[in-house]
Amino acid sequence: MSLVEIDGATLRYGALTALSGLDLRLEPGEVLGLLGHNGAGKTTTIKLVLGLLAPSEGRVRVLGHEARSLGARRQLGDLPE
């Protein structure tokens, strides 16, 4: 089972598309760094994984649970820089 699965995630804020068609798999033992310019979608991606935002399209799963579900949220923690 993947730790994180993102399949075709798109997130819109009104007319603004913040993410479009994001696909990602994070397997046990892997380390992932998100790099990009301001406004590239790094924080939005983290918020999707943490279940703080719901994708407009697509699916985000954490340890087999939908990211916004209680089962996923019990498995996650967030420590902002």
Automatic annotation (TrEMBL):
Q: Does the keyword Isomerase apply?
A: no
State the UniProt keywords alphabetically.
ATP-binding, Nucleotide-binding, Transport
* GO MF annotation terms: ATP binding; ATP hydrolysis activity
Superkingdom per UniProt: Bacteria
Task: List each copy of the ABC transporter domain by range.
Answer: 19-69
Under PANTHER family, the record lists: ABC TRANSPORTER ATP-BINDING PROTEIN ALBC-RELATED
- The protein's name is ATP-binding cassette domain-containing protein
- Organism per entry: Pseudomonas aeruginosa
Taxonomic lineage is: Bacteria, Pseudomonadati, Pseudomonadota, Gammaproteobacteria, Pseudomonadales
